[in-house]
Amino acid sequence: MGTISFHRELPKPSTSSSPTSSSTSSTSRTETVNGSHQFKIKGYSLAKGMGVGKYIASDTFMVGGYEWAIYFYPDGKSAEDNASYVSLFIALASEGTDVRALFELTLLDQSGKGHHKVHSHFGRMLESGPYTLKYRGSMWGYKRFFKRTLLETSDYLKDDCLSISCCVGVVKSHTEGPKIYSILVPPSDLGHHFGRLLESGKGADVKFEVEGEIFDAHKLVLAARSPVFRAQLFGPLKDRNTQCIRVEDMEAPVFKTLLHFIYWDALPDMEELVGSTSKCFSTHVAQHLLAAADRYALERLRLLCEAKLCEGVAINTVATTLALAEQHNCLHLKAVCLKFIALPENLKAVMQTDGFDYLKESCPGVLTELLQYVARIGEHSVIACGYGKETSLDGCDVNDRRVKPRLQ
């Protein structure tokens, strides 16, 4: 990470002017935003022979506000090398103009000896500065990254698998002006005060009964946080008995967590809440909490639950989560679940779960979308192996016409 600083002082006034003087300063900082991605290639021997210029692509990954992808050519990128070398490149996979970046491509030694093959811009002086990528599809890398005969007898290839690590450092610049104060302002503790109010029960003026358990709360707090509670407690069609409201179709721990979020604006420790470290049980609670968040129009809580469920996608719970996402219009969560289920290594196992039977019964229309994802993955695997119009991803097709290839 580099820093370039500039300091500028105003000219001193002449002796005939006022004796007062002033100066200002600013600092321009140029540094890198770094990120890395590991790309494993399984079945190397099956990828050989696909043809010169044909590639296998990694999934895209985000660094510095841009998407990137790794491209591996088992038979090389250039016809003149007659498939005697493998080629390796990193490509800009999103729209961008004159993106300046540092790169590092590493072929990992899988013997445990640490003798990795590394090509890096990092940690050394560059004569012409960072590499500049002109547009989407621009590449940096090596046509002759490794001689094939040597690679296939080396410790870089193990169990017919290669492991590649890529680091990208996108160059960013910003200018800082003078700071006129340095008072440390603590973060907001509003949620802490409301949370303590819930715990103390002082001033509570409404009760909720959930599965026989009673919860005390404050009407104004609930109304301020949820339009559904506002209508229920103060609207023209409000409940007649607001002293104790019975909540149906919800588990007591879920309602307790809902109240905790309303007052604290944060989720409690889920393992402590459920009394278990089981990931499956935590997922179960998050599923029910998402439904409760949608029921009471708590959008931030709904998104928190979506994020937690995305992190916990697993074979035995993903079908139920997909049904939930469909029922509550959680589009991002739905896409994550469909992509997970459609993977060839997951599809058969998911179809054998009870959750998949529930999905077929409750949301039959989703199965059509699932088939589309399965077909899309099959199509992408063909494209990623280079079967299609041969386009050189440094920006020209085989006829040397300028193109902007579409990176999947």
Stated plainly, the CATH topology of the domain at 29-174 is called: Apoptosis, Tumor Necrosis Factor Receptor Associated Protein 2, Chain A
β content, as a range? Answer: 15-25%
CATH class descriptor of the domain at 29-174: Mainly Beta
> Count of helical segments?
14
If classified by CATH, what would the architecture of the domain at 29-174 be? Sandwich
Q: What is the CATH H-level superfamily of the domain at 29-174?
A: Apoptosis, Tumor Necrosis Factor Receptor Associated Protein 2, Chain A
Question: What is the radius of gyration?
Answer: 29 Å
Q: What is the helical fraction, as a range of percent?
A: 25-40%
Q: What is the CA–CA distance across the termini?
A: 31 Å
Broad structural category:
alpha+beta
Main sheet overview: 5 strands, antiparallel
Number of strand elements:
15
Could you spell the SSE succession in H and E letters? EHEEEEEEEEHEHEEHHEHHHHHHHHHEE
Shape: flat
Mean pLDDT: 84
Low-confidence stretches: 1-10, 382-408
Function: May act as a substrate-specific adapter of an E3 ubiquitin-protein ligase complex (CUL3-RBX1-BTB) which mediates the ubiquitination and subsequent proteasomal degradation of target proteins.
Region (Disordered): 1-34
Pathway: Protein modification; protein ubiquitination
Family: Belongs to the Tdpoz family.
Question: Helices, strands, pairings?
Answer:
Layout: E1 27-42, H1 44-47, E2 56-57, E3 61-63, E4 66-73, E5 85-92, E6 99-107, E7 117-120, E8 131-133, E9 139-147, H2 148-151, E10 161-176, H3 190-200, E11 206-210, E12 213-217, H4 219-225, H5 227-234, E13 244-246, H6 252-264, H7 270-274, H8 279-295, H9 299-311, H10 318-327, H11 331-342, H12 344-351, H13 354-362, H14 365-384, E14 391-392, E15 396-397
Parallel strand pairs: 11-13
Antiparallel strand pairs: 1-10, 2-4, 3-4, 4-5, 5-9, 6-7, 6-8, 6-10, 11-12, 14-15
